[in-house]
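Figure 6 in text form: structure in, sequence out.
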């Protein structure tokens, strides 16, 4: 099944996708868009273009498990996408994914503008990889 993960940000949103066999997740794109409605349209276009069958939206919970403004934004994105797409959409706890992505980029010595341009897509890849590993434990 083709799955897409979304790491929602205020100005940049990372997308990652996996192959049909669900073996590898990889960065797809970082969308630079501050306007929420325009962002939704761009995501819908990517979902349709890639024939995505399941969307995993990162849910940025606080370390105590509570949900702040960023989490509410992810929930709103889920709601909007459900209205406009015939695709399953789940929310996935994304605590620490940006920290893990930062570690990966440090290891690969990725710095400056290149780092800024890809960190959200790398975070989305981590979200998707976590979900794929979880899904395999259910089988």
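Output sequence:
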């Amino acid at each position: 099944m083709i799955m897409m993960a979304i790491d929602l940000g205020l100005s940049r949103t990372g997308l990652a996708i996996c192959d049909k066999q669900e073996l590898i997740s990889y960065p797809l794109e970082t969308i630079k868009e501050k306007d929420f409605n325009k962002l939704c349209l761009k995501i819908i276009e990517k979902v349709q273009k890639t024939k995505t069958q399941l969307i995993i939206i990162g849910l940025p919970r606080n370390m105590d498990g509570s949900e702040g403004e960023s989490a509410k934004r992810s929930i709103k994105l889920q709601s909007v996408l459900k209205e406009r797409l015939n695709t399953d959409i789940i929310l996935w706890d994304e605590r620490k994914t940006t920290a893990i992505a930062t570690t990966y980029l440090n290891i690969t010595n990725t710095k400056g503008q290149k780092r800024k341009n890809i960190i959200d897509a790398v975070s989305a890849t981590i979200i998707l990889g976590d979900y794929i590993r979880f899904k395999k434990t259910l089988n």
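Caption detail: The beta strands are 3-7, 12-18, 25-32, 54-59, 88-93.
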